[in-house]
Design brief:
The chain contains three helices and seven strands. It has one domain.
Length: 132
């Protein structure tokens, strides 16, 4: 919470990867008037057992809503768990850059890919240079 101290209670949105995202953090941020969305690990405390164990076919969505927190599981190539206090289960059409085709994705997945793509690329580049 120290990292976002100056941003609390100002209506900002935090995008996180699966290392940081949790229902517990979402509850804290809601109280600070800060939204959050990001990927989620299946072993996080506070997740409904059904979202962990359910098989979701490609293109399907399984979602749970508790207050402002939306948890969803969606399968593209592999299952993805997402948490959002900003999104619902709405779907958007996304154009593929490689195949020139389009597909439906949950809005939270599309937004996550747009905001976290740069971070993932930077992490990949940094991994090539080990720190001694």
């Amino acid at each position: 919470m120290t990292l976002i101290h100056e941003l609390k209670n100002k209506g900002y949105t935090l995008t996180t990867d699966n290392y940081c995202t949790s229902p517990e953090l979402a509850e804290i941020l809601i109280k600070c008037k800060t939204d959050i969305y990001g990927t989620l690990r299946a072993n996080r405390k506070g997740l409904p057992p059904l979202i962990k164990s359910s098989k979701v076919k490609k293109g399907e969505v399984l979602a749970f809503q508790k207050g402002k927190i939306c948890l969803l599981k969606w399968t593209d190539k592999k299952p993805i768990l997402m948490l959002s206090t900003l999104h619902s289960t709405s779907m958007v059409t996304v154009e593929s850059k490689k195949s020139k085709s389009s597909k439906l994705k949950p809005a939270v997945v599309a937004d996550y890919n747009n905001t976290m793509g740069g971070v993932d690329k930077a992490d990949q580049c940094l991994s090539y240079y080990p720190v001694a």
